[in-house]
Amino acid sequence: MNAVVFDKYGPPDVLRFEEVEPPVPREDEVLIKVHATTVNRTDCGVRAAKPFIARFFTGLLRPRQRILGTEIAGEIAAVGAAVREFAVGDHVFGINPWRFGAHAELMCMRETAPLAHMPDGMSFDEAAAVCDGAILALKCLRSADLQKGQRILVYGASGSIGTAGVQLAKYFGADVTGVCSTKNLEIVRSIGADKVIDYKKEDFTKNGETYDVIFDAAGTLAFKHSRGSLKRGGRYLATDGLQNFILALWTARFGDRKVLMLIPPRDMKKDVLFMKELIEAGRYRAVIDRCYPLDGVIEATRYVETWHKTGNVVLTVNGATGHGES
User: pTM for this structure?
Assistant: First the structure.
């Protein structure tokens, strides 16, 4: 099968498209014919080994996993003897955050992994772009115990995590302010933001508004810069940055405004099923910026690393972008 592999850390050019041995499913696994996947922040961080501490988890001198890709949408090609939830031909979507492997024509996942049947009528491209940003945003908002009527500001509201955060915060009944660039104002409004701020024209920390929650979906905002915009008892949701681990420990004991650091959940299957329900109810949609073929992964990765993408960047695989009725 064809796959994108890398054997050393570095810039996007370390990725290469080549033929590798196809995986064989174990008795508790399914073999998936991949139709779409994404290039996301996790893929870029692992490939570049940034921050350096990540090497202690991904391989100190060279990567343990040769094939990246966490998000998946495709078709079940084979099932192991113990599998009961899925059958050959089922259209599925999900996320494989600890094992990767989606940047390939075929991959294996356990039946118990964060994998579910695709919502009817959803394209493979759309399904592949759901899980990473949505599950991370969902984890953050739940950790903040976001309540109906509370005010939340989503910084980086047009990215993968940000577009998910805006929609999920609206689902939870919050009043949502999105911060993004000029070109994305209408997109952020269209997914439910009550107010949108163009960060190129206005500094939200200087307008006198305060919020119950500030969600740094972009991972580029500083707590000290935005602390004054939090109400007493407010929560600052961080998605990146070693300094935020320290701040989370400190503010847990001192001060009246808390930093909550994102710790990705291990058990995500229920979250994938939750997102499926929202999609089928018309309460969530994946935002896609660009689509590339699998062998265009280097170009796709370079674009992601401009850090100015809108929503998600999708890789189409096996030539399929059709809908997922099953």
Answer: 0.93
